[in-house]
Amino acid sequence: MDESTQDNQWSLETLAIRTGHHRTHEREHSEAIFPTSSYVFKSAAEAAARFSGEEKGNIYSRLSNPTVGYFEERLAVMEGGESCVATASGMAAIMAVMMALLKAGDHIVCSRSIFGTTTIFLNTFMAKFGVEITFVELSNLETWQAALKPNTRLLFAETPSNPLSELVDIQALAEIAHLNESLLVIDNCFCTPVLQRPLMLGADIVVHSATKYLDGQGRCLGGAVVGNAELVGEKVFAVLRSGGASMSPFNAWVFLKGLETLHLRMKVHSDSANELAHWLEQQQSVKRVYFTGLASHPQHALAKQQQSNWGGIVSFEVAAGKQAAWEMIDSTQMLSITANLGDAKSTITHPASTTHGRLSEEQRLEAGISQGLVRVAVGLENIDDIKADLARGF
Ligand SMILES: *Cc1c(COP(=O)(O)O)cnc(C)c1O
After folding, report:
1. What residue segments make up the domains of the chain, in order of their start?
2. How sure is the predictor about 365, in pLDDT bands with cuts at 50, 70 and 90?
3. What's the CATH number of domain 263-391, 3.30.1300.10, 3.40.50.720, 3.30.540.10, 3.90.1150.10?
4. Would you say the CB of residue 188 lies under 6 angstroms from ligand 1?
């Protein structure tokens, strides 16, 4: 196979299109899909050398696959990391990081406003294996600092948060983590490397749910872990190799194609969300809008500093509460009532009864998820059509 073309002077848009493709002897222009579970050796001696690790090369697709490798190489370059390991889903990426880096007796600090399944995974499963977890307020660095212990191995955060778009200062949090000899892991699902590059701000590891914006059209489940060669290339890879939550080559191909248009899509998602947020702020029945692009957002300046655009998620509170929020959702005709996001199709969700439905009312209020809250993941339809659809409910 050819060497992949790559020029370190290239901008992110070019890297997203031109890196990580190793052309075969067929000279294909678009990346090839290799749907094979194993690979053939020239001789018994070559098989032995591959299995012993003496010689590099493919053995079995749980360990490596060319199409998956293209995706890993491309995403690693885009995030600015040495290594990337692709996984079967975003949760598999988070699980692999935790299993690779934690042991019984370790402690982790995690922001309260993270993806619900991540909270369940930590509280139910990591806790079962003797890992202690402290949840803190995402934007408040003092609460992170106060939660640290000598055995704190890692800090885990999602910024901006879902659905209220709170942020944490990644650079400051990385300093706090490193002074305590802990690692900082950032779930970069909402921004993608196009809007935010946590490794460049000092984070040690980035995790992704590729299911969202990297795919961009709601087709495949996938995930990824990016970081340095030791933590990710060796430790996280070792867990995946034995644990088995590898990415399928077909899904890797879909994500490769997704990365090529990511910068265009993130621009439209962000610009449309910004226009929608400003419009929502003027609606009589809307009490409050949560969006980092609004001057009214308490961390507007931080968003400007650490992100290159706002992202596509807008949440708002309907003054009249749950009944009004449900009526508002049900009056739309185009928007999809579904909890997924990062799709070309705009989606609308009532967090209190869906994504955050398993929390107690007290936990929900602590997280700021009121009964009147509605979340819109702004898609790629014309923004005037999205506004017109929402206007039916006001
Ligand atoms: C969806 C999501 C995940 C989980 O990803 P899956 O691909 O669904 O397993 C993790 N983190 C965030 C922020 C997400 O939105």
Report:
1. 3-260, 263-391
2. confident
3. 3.90.1150.10
4. no
